[in-house]
Write a structure and sequence with these properties.
- This protein is α+β, with helices and mostly antiparallel strands.
- The chain has two domains: 54 residues, no CATH class; 233 residues, no CATH class.
- The chain is 35% helix and 22% strand.
- The strands form four sheets. Strands 9-3-6-5-13 form a five-stranded antiparallel sheet.
- A hairpin with a 2-residue loop joins strand 10 and strand 11.
- Helix 1 runs antiparallel to helix 2, helix 1 crosses helix 9 and helix 5 crosses helix 6.
- The longest helix has 21 residues.
- It starts with 7 loop residues before the first helix and ends in a 24-residue tail after the last helix.
Length: 362
């Protein structure tokens, strides 16, 4: 793929200083802006690439390695995938997405650490609880959850992508339980339980006075206003979406490669930066085969991009059940052996070897 003509970093370099003066971004957001401005520039140092045939030299500058930088995710993604190869049950996997309703988005933006964490907790408990119910599967699943906070137009759209094993280990730990229906778990049941668990957790946080309320959410400090929002959310149908299953390990990793280290927008989607505006392509949700172009002021573009800066140290990729770190040498090894013809834990590393891109393509 050719290098993009425009980058998020270009918008930060051209308009970042003015944005800082007008909006006073948080310390974490300012650090991200600084990292993007200096990424792969002389400021961070570098080295010379030499062509062994003709002797031509070209400087290669160091990367900022910020997880929000569109240019710094390729190698980290490949290294992460290589590390996950031995931690995969060789069975079909399902893709389940948990989405928070739009009424919560302003509240989430003001309380990212707590409410993104609650999203992980509510979704993971929902999958574990329903899978363990004998009326559904009666087993322990393995799944990886990846947080995305954006929509195609860079607006706030917090949701969790979960890659889930198509079955699980029985309670005895001696048998692999396959799904009973064409689908893995019923989405209406998932939706209701997810809603209940998230709102129960949200109520506990509000009762403890731990929510930051201001601006659009200031009125929620009033118990009546809070109760009204809570009642509306309980009445609303929450969106849990299940896609068709992946065929095998290669398909699972092809999916994970697209989603695990994705940032809010890739540089290849940016079409133009000029006259104080930024234009970028986005996919039409009504017809995903169509792409459109959205033009925003540079100020609004940076504001939307910075909405998706995560709290410092926040973990956005988490593993549960059979895939949790505590089960790698026990339950996961048993599940892998149950899928192996010789009864031994297989070596998924032989299935696929993601190539690590060079630090300076040449």
């Amino acid at each position: 793929m050719p290098r993009p003509r425009f980058e998020v970093a270009d918008a930060v370099r051209e308009h970042g200083e003015q944005y800082r003066r007008m909006h006073a971004p948080s310390t974490t957001q300012q650090k991200v802006m600084g990292h993007l401005e200096t990424c792969r520039t002389a400021v961070l140092g570098g080295h010379l690439d030499n062509c062994a045939d003709c002797g031509y030299q070209r400087p290669s500058y160091n990367s900022c390695r910020d997880r929000h930088c569109p240019k710094c995710q390729g190698r980290r993604q490949a290294e992460w995938l290589a590390g996950r190869l031995s931690r995969l049950v060789p069975t079909e996997h399902y893709h389940i997405v948990f989405t928070l309703p739009e009424e919560l988005r302003s509240l989430v933006l003001g309380n990212k650490r707590q409410l993104y964490g609650l999203l992980f907790k509510a979704a993971s408990q929902t999958l574990k609880t329903i899978a363990a119910d004998p009326r559904h599967l009666g087993c322990q699943l393995g799944f990886t959850a990846v947080l995305h906070t954006w929509g195609q137009n860079l607006s706030a759209h917090p949701h969790l992508h979960c890659v889930v094993t198509g079955g699980g280990l029985s309670r005895s730990g001696q048998r692999w339980v396959k799904k009973k229906q064409a689908f893995l778990l019923p989405t209406p049941v998932l939706s209701k339980l997810f809603r209940g668990k998230f709102l129960a957790g949200l109520q506990r946080i509000w009762d403890q006075g731990l929510l930051r309320l201001g601006g659009r959410t200031a009125e929620l400090a009033d118990p009546l206003a809070w109760a009204g929002l809570r009642d509306r959310l309980y009445r609303k149908k929450w969106h849990v979406y299940a896609k068709r299953p992946f065929g095998g390990p290669k398909q699972v990793f092809a999916y994970l490669g697209r989603y695990t280290h994705r940032v809010a927008i890739t540089n290849h989607r940016i079409e133009d930066i000029s006259h104080g505006t930024v234009s970028f392509s986005y996919r039409d949700y009504k017809d995903e085969r169509r792409t459109k172009t959205l033009r925003l002021s540079a100020e609004e573009f940076l504001r939307r991009f910075l909405l998706h800066v995560l709290p410092r140290g926040f973990v956005r990729i988490r593993h549960y059940g059979l895939y949790s770190g505590s089960n790698v040498k026990t339950k996961l090894a048993t599940a892998q052996a149950l899928h192996s013809p010789d009864g031994h834990s297989p070596n998924p590393g032989a299935l696929i070897h993601p190539a690590l891109p060079s630090t300076a393509p040449w």
